[in-house]
Please model this.
Amino acid sequence: MERLSDPAAIGLELACRVLAPVPAFGMYINHAFSKKWILRMSAGFLYLDVMDFEGRYLSTSVTVDYIFTKHFGLGGGFTRQNLDFSSAGGDNPWKIEYQVDGPTLYISLVF
Model:
């Protein structure tokens, strides 16, 4: 929130919202050991430092797919997602920390 002059004196505040795409940097590695076994690894990272706001997002995943028919496969692995975002300025500083990690199990559609 931006203040115009002294809001207490003139009773006016200016607020705006911005929605814009933010690029995340990532790396993906897929390796097919055979037609039926595929190893997938990925990592994504985003860091943002704008005015009084600072934060980062990190996502990593390692999975293995087994293609058991012509059109279906089964996969599983481990995924981790971590979010750390904070506001240091203003009257009410705040911080968000969020982390989820654990096993992943899914069915693949192959075409």
